[in-house]
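Inverse folding, one chain.
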């Protein structure tokens, strides 16, 4: 007995020692991660500053910096896939990189603002207010000008006018909004087509030029709603939101029976030109804007569109962790290629999972996002940066698209996935990205793009999205304190727009297209996949004790609950294999071809 009595405290003591040492090591670990994050945050701030300062010294007020020759390029009028036939005559830059830097200045230097030190945001706003003019004979790409300039101005206006941010110490009289409105007005002639689909190019002074190309991309028509919608909400002029909405609705009506979209189309006829598409170039932000428009404006229609479009992506483009391209008509795979732009997709999946506004959690999709992210990162590690195009079937870089123009997409996904999972693995990924950028792309005059990832030969261009997005997402990965207590949606160019209940109001009746429904359905309360109506019980995953079942994202239910059918189309998609089910001779849905 005595031995028992004395044994118990010893045992308890032992437990205490074990648990204390565990606590110490886990808190040590936490503080090591915290220190790592601070160190990385400061490195990213330095990177931004180096890029920004060189731009201001050698390129401002032109559009973008040429870091190798320490000169500039007026690139806004040259952006996009469709090439200029003649250059504008009196176009001399729009301080594009400065506009793109505004929200990053607010985020990255916020702690300095609090200490009353930083006036750079205010200085930039002051300069733009006085000097920026859109009354120039410049043919600009509508999509690029919208996401970079309109988005940059609208977002910075909101940041500037929110006194909580303390970004403006002097006076601010909505000058950025005035500029944004002027630009928005200059966009409107582009929408004057029989279909409502906008031209890809518009001359800021003269509207659409004679003989202008009628070819545009899916993103060019379907990724305008955030910026133009925000402009309407801020100015009270519904024309911008209406034009963007009309184009989006027309585009939506052009989907195939498989709920797929092509990549390019004709704005006059509304016919598809390129039927093959994926989640990368020419289409990417269209998907992104469906879900973000739902978050920003609260309409269920956007969410429903996103659900169908997302499901079709998972069904026809996904191959394990990779995404290939497919023909919108048949769903048949066309190109087995990874593109650098696709790397935003895991971030979008994580963002949706994090979206408690819609009270649904894409549980299964964070897992899918994580495995795709790892694949993208493995290609990044293979080359040191992400090549523009990588041939999946040959496991090698595309022979002509070997470049890396400082794109943000992998950093963006890394930030969202860290936010969604808090897994320190993503901090390590962020660190690797920062180190690569500093090692391969940093030069005396800024950050240079990579022309060829196999030789790491540099190119004389520092794109404005390096400041708007790449640096911002890396910074937010290591320090998201600016986001605390704020609820933002980031545009495709990384410009924050706040989620405001006011913006969830209806548009004035006169501007509601007749078949556009605003009826809000009751939100499901249980945690489920965002494919809420199309999920199936988890059957395929080995669950550890106490683990939540993870639902398959590719499952599509059969048309009838009793699984009876007349045609293959009435059968859905199998949750485990992601294969389409077919209708048997006896009239039942199943994976009959596999039996
Ligand atoms: C950015 O301009 C935007 O993110 C756009 O949607 C596509 N990608 C570039 C940067 O890679």
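Residues assigned per position:
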């Amino acid at each position: 007995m005595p031995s028992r009595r004395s044994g118990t405290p010893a045992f308890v003591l032992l437990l205490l020692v074990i648990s204390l040492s565990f606590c110490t090591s886990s808190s040590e670990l936490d503080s090591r991660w915290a220190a790592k994050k601070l160190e990385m945050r400061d490195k990213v701030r330095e990177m931004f500053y180096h890029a920004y300062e060189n731009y201001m010294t050698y390129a401002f007020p032109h559009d973008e910096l040429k870091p190798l020759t320490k000169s500039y390029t007026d690139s806004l009028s040259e952006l996009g896939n469709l090439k200029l036939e003649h250059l504008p005559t009196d176009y001399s830059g729009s301080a594009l990189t400065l506009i793109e830097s505004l929200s990053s200045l607010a985020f990255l230097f916020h702690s300095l603002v609090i200490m009353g030190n930083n006036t750079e945001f205010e200085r930039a706003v002051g300069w733009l207010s006085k000097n920026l003019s859109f009354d120039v004979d410049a043919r600009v790409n509508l999509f690029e000008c919208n996401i970079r300039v309109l988005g940059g101005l609208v977002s910075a206006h909101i940041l500037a006018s929110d006194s909580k941010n303390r970004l403006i110490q002097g006076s601010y009289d909505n000058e950025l909004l005035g500029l944004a409105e002027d630009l928005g007005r200059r966009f409107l002639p582009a929408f004057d087509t029989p279909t409502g689909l906008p031209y890809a190019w518009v001359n800021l002074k003269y509207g659409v030029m004679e003989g202008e190309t009628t070819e545009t991309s899916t993103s060019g028509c379907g990724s305008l709603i955030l910026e133009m919608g925000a402009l309407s909400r801020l100015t009270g002029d519904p024309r911008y939101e209406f034009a963007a909405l009309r184009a989006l609705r027309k585009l939506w009506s052009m989907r195939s029976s498989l709920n797929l979209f092509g990549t390019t189309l004709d704005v006059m006829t509304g016919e598809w030109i390129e039927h093959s598409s994926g989640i990368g170039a020419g289409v990417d932000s269209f998907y992104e804007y469906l879900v973000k428009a739902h978050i920003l404006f609260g309409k269920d229609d956007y969410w429903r569109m996103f659900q169908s479009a997302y499901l079709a992506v998972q069904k026809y483009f996904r191959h394990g962790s990779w995404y290939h391209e497919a023909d919108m008509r048949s769903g048949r795979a066309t190109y087995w290629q990874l593109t650098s732009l696709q790397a935003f997709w895991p971030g979008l999946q994580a963002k949706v999972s994090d979206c408690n506004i819609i009270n649904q959690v894409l549980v299964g999709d964070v897992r899918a996002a994580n495995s795709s992210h790892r694949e993208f990162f493995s290609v990044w590690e293979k080359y040191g940066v992400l090549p523009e195009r990588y041939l999946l079937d040959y496991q090698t870089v595309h022979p002509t698209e070997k470049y890396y123009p400082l794109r943000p997409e992998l950093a963006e996904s890394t930030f969202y996935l860290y936010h969604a999972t808090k897994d320190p693995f993503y901090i390590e990924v962020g660190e690797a990205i920062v180190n690569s950028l500093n090692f391969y792309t940093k030069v005396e005059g800024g950050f240079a793009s990579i022309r060829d990832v196999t030789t790491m030969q540099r190119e004389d261009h520092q794109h404005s999205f390096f400041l708007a997005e790449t640096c911002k997402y890396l910074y937010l990965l290591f320090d998201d304190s600016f986001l605390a207590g704020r609820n933002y949606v980031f545009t495709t160019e990384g410009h924050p727009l706040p989620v405001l209940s006011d913006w969830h109001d209806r548009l004035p009746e006169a501007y509601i297209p007749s078949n556009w429904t605003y009826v809000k359905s009751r939100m499901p309360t249980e945690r489920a996949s965002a494919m809420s109506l199309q999920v199936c019980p988890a059957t395929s995953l080995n669950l550890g004790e106490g683990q939540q079942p993870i639902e398959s994202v590719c499952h599509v239910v059969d048309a009838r609950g009793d699984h009876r059918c007349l045609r293959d189309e009435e059968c859905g998609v199998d949750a485990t294999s992601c294969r389409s089910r077919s209708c048997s001779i006896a009239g039942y849905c199943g994976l009959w071809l596999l039996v």
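The CA atoms of residues 86 and 137 lie 12 Å apart. The chain is about 45% helix and 10% strand.
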